[in-house]
Fold:
Amino acid sequence: MLNETHLRAFFALEINDELQKIATHIINAVQIQPDGHKVKWMPSHKLHLTLRFLGEVDSQHIHQCITTLMTTLKTIPPFTIQADKVFNFPATKPRIIALHFPLGKELANLYRIVESTCRATGFQAEKHGFLPHITLGRMSSPVNFDYLKLASADFPPFLIKDIALFRSDFCSDGSVYKVLQRLQLGC
Structure:
């Protein structure tokens, strides 16, 4: 699994095919709007919900975290989450267009466990609060996307049965993500 000494990594939730299709439909609808070309849209295969960005880390350090998480995640039964809207953030100078997920108790508990495990195994505390979302696009400068409220959809619930450890490598076309390991819930 982790055969290199250093890597850039994060824990995330992978999305199912149905939500990926809906997200792609929203991206396609919004990118043809005025200023849609000013956004760097995420390819559908890169869509995910980040739980915890680890950064550039030593693989042994991640191994300790994974070992602890595998035990703790067994106590959490699988659960469902559901997006509720398309939005942009931060509020003052929006730079991200995303699908928003309410922070229900199961998702909040999962985040709390991942974050506390990361801190307990020597990672720095997360500097920002957890805002559950799937990034659809990034803006280099703020643009007016008042029509985002029109990009609504019936978002299906999807089952969270594991979390994934992703590796992120930079390349000329942006970051390339690769799942290194999946950690099961409730096993």
